[in-house]
Amino acid sequence: MKILYGVVGEGMGHAMRSRVVLEYLLSRGHEIEIMASSRAADFLAARFRGVRRIHGFHIVYEENRMKLAATVRSNLRSTAATLPANIRAYFELVEQFDPSVVISDF
Fold first, then answer.
1. Which range, 19-23, 36-40, 49-53, has the best average confidence (pLDDT)?
2. Under a CB-based contact definition with an 8 Å cutoff, are residues 43 and 19 in contact?
């Protein structure tokens, strides 16, 4: 089966869990394309070939506390600039790869 697998890059829990799932899916003979953002992209690219980096949401911290307003502002600014490229990358990959299923670890 052809699987498009997306992973959020904020924190590493999603990437760690996805690594285990991806290893299992590959061991079962599935063909997989991976899209990930931020630290997850780096982590997965060290273990799987062809990881496609996209822009993802992030959290702004100050003194180990999440700053809600700063997080929202930062994501709105960056999303406005990167959303068109992310959408284009997704649809180009879907057209080229023609996945049977899309899995998102978000």
1. 19-23
2. yes
- Residue 32 belongs to what H/E stretch? strand 31-37
Distance CA(90)–CA(73), nearest Å, equals 24
d(Cα 41, Cα 35) in Å, to the nearest integer?
Answer: 7
Helices (DSSP H) in the chain: which residue ranges? 13-27, 38-45, 68-97
CA distance 83 to 86: 5
Cα angle at 91 between 19 and 78, to 5 degrees?
Answer: 75
In 3D space, the residue among 77, 91, 76 whose CA is nearest the CA of residue 35 turns out to be: 91
User: To which residue do tokens 């980096």 refer?
Assistant: 53
Q: What is the pLDDT of residues 60-89, one digit of tens each?
A: 999 999 999 999 999 999 888 898 998 999
Whole-model pTM: value is 0.83
| C-alpha to C-alpha distance for 36 and 56, rounded to whole angstroms | 8
Q: What is the pLDDT of residues 26-41, one digit of tens each?
A: 999 999 999 999 999 9
